[in-house]
Design brief:
The protein is of the alpha/beta class. It folds into two domains: 156 residues, Periplasmic binding protein-like II (D-Maltodextrin-Binding Protein, domain 2), CATH 3.40.190; 92 residues, Periplasmic binding protein-like II (D-Maltodextrin-Binding Protein, domain 2, 3-Layer(aba) Sandwich). 41% of the residues lie in helices and 20% in strands. Strands 5-1-6-13-7 form a five-stranded mixed β-sheet, sandwiched between helices. Strands 10-9-11-8-12 form a five-stranded mixed β-sheet, sandwiched between helices. The longest helix has 20 residues. It is elongated and about 65 Å long. It starts with a helix and ends with a helix.
Length: 292
């Protein structure tokens, strides 16, 4: 496939944005604290919050390919093999509801389908409240608002890549399904968009010289630059309307939504999520250094 053909395909994929499927295998039977089967609880529960409390756990759909929100921790024995700010939020919600958090890892779109059909109780995906998603689930309150979106380049290219026009016919790398990928598709129509599984993959492409720039959230970019002094900010900011990041639950489950929103309100008031995000960035960068 030609570079131009690859560009068109990449832009089409990014246009789908952080939508990434359907179908889900998240229907394992759980045993509740009282010994009731999941089937019995679901049949007799007054609502999903009641079911969660009787089962003693909340099932949370995640897509562990979106650092620093959620990512795998290779080689960790026992416990939860995932890290990230959304993982910490899920654990905190479970703690406040006095239940256990059970994380169900799936592709992004499979998570979307799972919450729509009720196979999971909650999804935490670093997700923006797009209108098409509103038709599939009820959104929680915003728990995080992304910062500036920037382009990281090699220091040797700083004088050459300080204007958006300088990236014409050049490759920009961004994580698939991310806000950054959407912004590149919208604002750099004459550039080639390369999609990577992780933000670290975009940075690796930049370091290897297969991309002229890596498009990142500023908080992530600052961590990258700290670890890689040969990389710098281009000085270009990608403007966008900040809608904030939300979770999602099955439509109509008012009691569960109210309970989760009460926890999120506390998280926002105490700035807990930013602490988790900072720690997740550090952990993700450490893992990147181990892998690459």
């Amino acid at each position: 496939m030609s570079r131009r053909g690859k560009k068109i395909l990449a832009v089409c994929l990014a246009g789908l944005l952080a939508l990434s499927g359907s179908g889900c295998n998240a229907s394992a039977t759980l045993a509740s604290v009282s010994g009731e089967s999941e089937e019995a609880v679901q049949r007799t529960a007054k609502n999903r919050l009641d079911a969660v409390q009787r089962l003693g756990k909340i099932r949370i759909g995640i897509s562990a390919d979106y650092a620093p929100f959620a990512f795998e921790i290779p080689g960790e024995a026992g416990g939860i093999p995932y890290g990230g700010s959304d993982i910490e939020l899920g654990k905190y919600i479970a703690q406040k509801l006095e239940v256990e958090a059970e994380f169900v890892e799936m592709e992004f779109e499979d998570c979307m389908a799972a919450v729509e059909e009720g196979s999971v109780d909650l999804v935490l995906l670093g997700m923006l409240p797009e209108p098409d998603r509103k038709n599939r689930m009820d959104f929680t309150e915003v728990y995080y608002r992304p910062g500036k979106q920037v382009i990281v380049i090699k220091e040797s290219q700083k004088g050459k890549l300080s204007e958006a026009e300088a990236f014409e016919d050049k490759t920009l790398a961004a994580q698939y399904g991310s806000l950054q990928a959407q912004l590149v598709a919208e604002q750099f129509p004459c550039s080639y968009l390369e999609l990577t599984e992780r933000a670290s993959g975009a940075v690796l492409m930049l370091r290897l010289g297969t991309a002229a720039g890596a498009v990142l959230d500023e908080a992530v970019a600052q961590k990258v630059i700290k670890e890689r002094p040969e990389l710098v900010l281009s000085g270009i900011e990608l403007p966008y309307e900040s809608k904030g990041v939300v979770g999602g639950i099955k439509q109509g489950e008012t009691e569960l939504l109210t309970a989760i929103n009460a926890v999120i309100e506390e998280v926002v008031e105490e700035d807990l999520y930013f602490d988790w995000l900072d720690a997740a960035n550090e952990q993700a960068m450490t893992l990147q250094g181990t892998i690459h």
